[in-house]
Amino acid sequence: MNTATITIGTIAALASLVCWALFFRGVWTMLRTIAKGQKDNSRFTPVLPRFKQMMIEFVAHTRMAKFRTVGWAHWLVMIGFLLGSLLWFEAYGQTFDAKFHWPIFGDTFAWHLLDELLGIGTVVGIVTLIIIRQLNHPRVPERLSRFSGSRFGAAYFVEVVVLLEGLGMIFVKAGKIATYGHAHAGSDFFTMQVAKLLPASPTMVSVFALIKLMSGMIWLAVIGRNITWGVAWHRFSAFFNIYFKREDDGGVALGAARPMTSGGKVLDMETADPDVDAFGAGKIEDFTWKGWLDFTTCTECGRCQSQCPAWNTGKPLSPKLLITSLRDHGYAKAPYLLAGGKKDISGDEVGLVDADGNVLQDKLDAIPEAARNEAERKLVGESEGTTGAVIDTETLWSCTNCGACVEQCPVDIEHVDHIIDMRRYQVLIESDFPSELAGLFKNLENKGNPWGQNSKDRTKWIDEMDIEIPVYGQDVESFEGFEYLFWVGCAGAYEDRAKKTTKAVAELLDIAAVDFLVLGEGETCNGDSARRAGNEFLFQMLAQQNIETLDEMFATAPAQAKKIVVTCPHCFNTLGNEYPQVGGKYEVVHHTQLLNRLVRDKRLIPVAPVNKDITYHDPCFLGRHNKVYDAPRELMDASGANLTEMPRHGERSMCCGAGGARMWMEETIGKRINLDRVDEALGTSPEKVATGCPFCRVMLTDGVTAKTSGTELENKVEVLDVAQLILDSVRRGAPEIKRGGRFLGAASLGLSAPVAEPEAKPVEKKEPAAEPAKAAAATATDTKEKPKVGGGLGIGGGAKKPGGGAPKPGGAATKPGGGAPKPGGAAKPTSDEKATAPAAEGAKGLSIGGGAKKPGAPKPGGAAKKPGAAKPAAEAAGTAATAETTETAEASETKAAPVKGLSIGGGAKRPGAPKPGGAAKKPGAAKPASTPEPDATETESEATSVTEEPATTGQAGEKPPAAQVKGLAIGGGAKRPGAKRPGAPKPGAGKPDEDVAPAPVADEPSKVDEPEVGEPAAEGTAEGGASEPSPSVPVKGLAIGGKAKRPGAKKPGAAKAAPAPEAEPEPVSEPEPTPEPEPTPEPAEATETAEATETAEVAEAAPATTESTNGAAATNGDAPADSRTLAESGPSKAKGFGIAAGKKRPGKR
């Protein structure tokens, strides 16, 4: 210590006091500003898991390690800053005395080695980062630089200071070695070499210490004056931002969107008040304090920007610039907020006012003008000029919610949540959103799906299947015995390409003997698009409606797990992650996960490799949002496909452009995102592009079509779902797939594995009266009922449900009797009984062995049902009234005796049941046995159609003469469009509920539903047939067997004893007089009888069909007020959300 060193030390100490003061002043301002955000009390606990996660991300640098070079370089700088701070404080003493070191440990080998490594590591790390920044400088094409828009001045300042700190560590230590010696080769291996270049001088050591100290002090003073320099402040704030991250399990803020909150409470549509609560973020102070901390912590590194699909395709959105714009605006407005300024929703000052509400102008004038001007700026709007909005409208709506920004952010900033909050305000308060979303919201609210399709059409895809798919509330009334609910989703039910995935998954589950059911018309859109577009209350309405439906279904089997399988990642994410926020907790799996498990368990066995070159697109809501990356790839590997990954895959996968409600908006700026992704996909030279999302499939298909049109690749690259690949591998080369056996319930009911039944052989059957007894005997050994599918939808004669496949022309009528099981329980006929129908001679020459199912025929194992329940012997006298559709073609040529006891309208298949005729062909020649896939593309315009007999695929080459078609050529039993009208119950007919007393048709004309879009209007024949009195033949139930109760019935399986069967049906008036029905009636006569039967049975099922799809009143008298209808009188609680009083809840009928 000498005069020079004492002087140096004194100057350093005094200067540091000023620097520390400026720094702490900045910290205080920052804390006060962050505290102006909304409350969020969910961020503090649990303490230990949060602290553990913070330490993991800090020490292991898990977020930065995704970029290897940057990761290790940044780790060195970080450690040099934190541990180097001990060496930095040591410089205080060294400015006074060059020999100074920390007592106790300051002269140990370990300390000297640490000093050596920290100095070298800091210099190496910061030099590497400097080089990387220069290599990625925006002087290259701007949008290729992740640093585009970042503040280079602040970055250069920080880099220089860090470099000086690292060099200071090295030179102070080297100077001490040069002056005092004591070098050790193990701990001073580098600095001892530098010391050889330096003179021995204590003053020199103090000068080096002063430089090291003052570089840090200047840094503190500068950042204290610039609290928006996140590149510097993240050294402190990043620890807190990581600790307070949204997910306390360590995950990123993806998956569920953050609920809409105000003042720390979650808002719901019943209690929210726009005059009191903040609906989303319309002002900077509407963000939570964690949002402000996010803005403060942003380092401007640009990793989010480099991964953003919007930015990379020329859109104005950069996640980095969005966050920094909010930060700059917030801190510029902070003086106004800290002074107590506040504006109401109309922009009037309500903060700085006196007791009478008068503005305190003197206090306003004391606020800096810049802050007052900033307070006048809108948060979202047109951003032109200095007084424009902070965030441009196009910027806000360009986001696809893909989550790439959140996934890559090294300091856990929650970009997507902030964007959704701003959208909420624009939608709920400003009503300022892209015009395309108006149609989306209307369709979701009125129809329950984004396309505005009718809910009855949700089950049309079932009509195209040759396997039984039970619909809850129509075919079955309990979840008991089922393992999964198959949530089809809107796209899976309506969109043609997505329906292929739906059918593939259903068939695979059937092959694997997975017991599942669907909700059918009970499904409503899950609300993902509404929530991501900012319409939070519409999401809540849709969610509450679905949760009510799901809980009602799962309550029928309380001992079973609430398991749901979905094909859409958006449904997967919403049902699994977001519904728990509003009270719905279920076990949700994506179909790729379930199918992969079935393959591993050998329940699905690929028999032939696909051997196609494919590439796979990771859906954002399956991959990044839910971390499902392996299951689809394992499935593709099992299928034998040759996978080539795109450059961007896995957690860095490129978005298809459909998320964040962008599916429903046009792209008008820059390149289309799906085209950019398709360019990457085609670069792998694939034959197929696989994905696991219906939205992705639509976007990629459109992109492939656009990119390959007019090229040699046109129509050569197919986009498909992973499920289709595995289905192709499972059944390729095996035209006859042995089904797993629907509804055997081996796993859930504790029974043995399904056993294939022997081949059904045609046996002559002379006495139809013995049929119920035989059916009962066939199942007498079953002591535990299996889940059974009912014979229909609760409409007359088991006729095809609304929205089902087109009715077959030329179909014969249904039997007038219903066919519900009688007390005493005659079960459904087995395959043997089914084959013994009098006209079953057509089942010739197929020789399908064992329990293998004929193509299109009902499955073995007891799952299949006759097109109606077994009829009693007393019904034999009435069987001449009508004829089965399945006999129509044969009857015109062979005049075979009519089949007795079938309660299903001719040609009309039960929902989810196998199509009559085994192969379920459309009008046209029957398919030969070697064709496993029925063609379902022909239309009902072919009046010369031929319908096969049940369980019969023979005589494929014969084409019987066409029966004359009378009237409107609507097949017997197939409901005419709009003909959902109740009829008078027959005397003695069993009723599902004594409380429901439908009026006779003769007394009150039936009301006809409005025809939906794309459907023909109700035809004249339907009008005439339904308005006439029904035949006197009693209706005997809804053909729902076993324990499954009729829709609306109070007691499952209950059916009244059948009345005397002598009654013959009376002719129904038609445009042409019709004689007494003969054993082989003409199609027109069959149609009339079917219509009469239908109206009678609709009356029984009235509780299940009281509302039409478009919300019309029940056709069976006056219905009680719908509990889902908002109040007509009084102020609506949904204030200003576009939901008028009396408006139906979304999707409800």
Structure description:
By secondary structure, this protein is mainly alpha-helical. The chain is 37% helix and 3% strand. Among the domains are: 3-232, no CATH class; 252-431, no CATH class; 436-730, no CATH class. The chain is built from 36 helices and twelve strands. The strands form four sheets. The chain has a four-stranded parallel sheet. A four-stranded parallel sheet has the order 10-9-11-12, sandwiched between helices. Strands 1-2 form a two-stranded antiparallel sheet. Strand 7, helix 25 and strand 8 form a beta-alpha-beta unit. Mean pLDDT is 74; it is low at 742-1149.
How would you concisely characterize the structure shown here?
GO terms for molecular function: 4 iron, 4 sulfur cluster binding; metal ion binding; oxidoreductase activity. This is Fe-S oxidoreductase. The chain has 1149 residues and is mainly alpha-helical.
Distance between the termini: 91 Å
Rounded to the nearest angstrom, the radius of gyration is 37 Å
Total of DSSP H or I helical runs spanning 4+ residues: 36
Molecular shape? globular
Outline the secondary-structure elements.
Layout lengths: L2 H32 L12 H13 L8 H15 L1 H13 L12 H27 L16 H29 L10 H5 L6 H24 L4 H14 L17 E2 L2 E2 L22 H9 L5 H5 L1 H4 L6 H20 L22 H6 L2 H8 L3 E2 L9 E2 H5 L6 H5 L6 H16 L4 H12 L13 H4 L20 E4 L2 H5 L1 H16 L4 E2 L10 H5 L3 H19 L8 E4 L2 H10 L8 E4 H10 L12 E4 L13 H10 L2 E2 L29 H10 L5 E4 L2 H15 L9 E4 H10 L14 H4 L21 H8 L52 H5 L49 H10 L125 H8 L55 H18 L49
Parallel strand pairs: 3-4, 5-6, 5-7, 7-8, 9-10, 9-11, 11-12
Antiparallel strand pairs: 1-2
Helix pairs in contact: 1-4, 1-8, 2-9, 3-5, 4-8, 5-6, 6-8, 9-10, 10-13, 13-15, 22-30, 26-27, 27-30, 28-29, 35-36
